[in-house]
Design a protein that fits this description.
Largest sheet: 7 strands, parallel
Family: Belongs to the NAD(P)-dependent epimerase/dehydratase family.
InterPro entries: NAD(P)-bd_dom, NAD(P)-bd_dom_sf, UDP_G4E
Radius of gyration: 21 Å
CATH architecture: 3-Layer(aba) Sandwich
Protein name: UDP-glucose 4-epimerase
Helix content: 40-55%
CATH superfamily: NAD(P)-binding Rossmann-like Domain
Bound molecules: nicotinamide-adenine-dinucleotide, 2-acetamido-2-deoxy-beta-D-glucopyranose
Distance between the termini: 25 Å
Shape: globular
EC number: 5.1.3.-
Keywords: Carbohydrate metabolism, Isomerase, Membrane, NAD, Transmembrane, Transmembrane helix
Structural class: alpha/beta
Number of domains: 1
Strand order of the largest sheet: 3-2-1-4-5-6-11
Length: 397
Amino acid sequence: MDYSQRRKPYILGKILVAFILIVFCIITLKQSPTHRSSSTSAFSRHEPGVTHVLVTGGAGYIGSHATLRLLKDSYRVTIVDNLSRGNMGAVKVLQKQFPEPGRLQFIYADLGDAQAVKQIFAENAFDAVMHFAAVAYVGESTLEPLRYYHNITANTLIVLEAMAANNVKTLIYSSTCATYGEPEKMPITEKTPQHPINPYGKAKKMAEDIILDFSKKSDMAVMILRYFNVIGSDPEGRLGEAPRPELREHGRISGACFDAASGIISGLKVKGKDYPTTDGTCVRDYIDVTDLVDAHVKALAKAEPKKVGIYNVGTGKGRSVNEFVKACKKATGVDIKVEYLDRRPGDYAEVYSDPSKINRELNWTAQYTDLEKSLRIAWQWQKNHRNGYGQSLLTAS
Ligand SMILES: NC(=O)c1ccc[n+]([C@@H]2O[C@H](COP(=O)([O-])OP(=O)(O)OC[C@H]3O[C@@H](n4cnc5c(N)ncnc54)[C@H](O)[C@@H]3O)[C@@H](O)[C@H]2O)c1
Ligand SMILES: *[C@@H]1O[C@H](CO)[C@@H](O)[C@H](O)[C@H]1NC(C)=O
Ligand SMILES: *[C@@H]1O[C@H](CO)[C@@H](O)[C@H](O)[C@H]1NC(C)=O
Ligand SMILES: *[C@@H]1O[C@H](CO)[C@@H](O)[C@H](O)[C@H]1NC(C)=O
């Protein structure tokens, strides 16, 4: 091995990355609302036959997958995201897939900035909004409740006000099974009483309430989707889940599984094996992001003025943590070390959905019901993107 010969391209690579990052920043700044002169662009006019969807949080995990599907289905999309938790790399992938003018626009803005949001709505002709942008970790929400009420509840109000002021007709809202709290009866139907037990669930419930009260006095078409535990990624490997490293500690089970499989953490800590379930570990309903996004597109197609549709989006099948770990071991081919700890306060034994309403009314059914398959797809992306979207920047250049 001759190291001196390998050094140079490495440094050149670094310079190239730095250069690309600077170009990113310039493009981003140019596209920020104050720098745009979009009054004549395709995005600023309604066009018959074209539905222009504002995707808030489109640089995030679910929002980026939704954007990919919308673009594939010929929608026009504007992403608004402030990249606080999302990835510019995901937006880049989407822009590369759909480079034609008038297809995809990225606007860097904070939804908490009411003035900026007002301006975005005034300058763009949106037909619908899919509102994904939020902070979304139960544990973090108990530590920093104001962050949750601000970025979920208050920001939803800002988006709704801008929609009303500009007569945007349809809203698809990202809600969660956390709004139900700890129901006494399983499975959870849409009629199950909502008694959220953490700030995340409460902030989402409050946002739902604001939307519902508003919709009673407006023509808006509203769909509220309450997701269960989201996993998986694009089957074609273009997008994945890449949360900030500092959020790992609050992370979700699939992320922890992959981290364990790739040696970033030493193993999995399963909290509680004495729950009253089949194998003693917690039971959850895992919904693949591809199916979830399909539910959004169907909801958008079926949304009707003056009507509200509320739907659980889950498979209807509960899977134990042990089952999940087994599937993860198979999908990754790694014999992940598992350590059993005491129960974590606030975790409930069993949560799974009754998806019959969305089956019936939107003709939606989960297609990805094989945990191992969903995890294999997601693992493929994780393996190819060891540093999330940062790594793909290097390989793409
Ligand atoms: N992942 C799940 O299992 C799950 C389950 C139920 C509900 N949800 C909901 O789905 C939605 C999307 O979740 P996700 O997992 O994709 O999260 P994510 O963190 O990957 O994406 C959220 C995106 O919103 C952006 N954002 C946050 N605050 C913003 C602000 N003030 N201004 C502009 N952009 C902002 C972030 O930068 C990020 O790109 C959230 O509303 C979440 O509550 C997720
Ligand atoms: C995103 O918005 C928040 C306010 O909600 C702000 O505090 C934060 O600095 C912003 N992040 C970036 C990267 O601009
Ligand atoms: C959310 O709100 C808080 C204010 O409570 C802010 O400091 C933070 O940066 C906001 N944004 C995110 C993404 O957390
Ligand atoms: C429901 O969806 C299936 C495909 O998932 C399709 O074959 C069928 O025609 C749809 N039914 C209606 C009534 O749209």
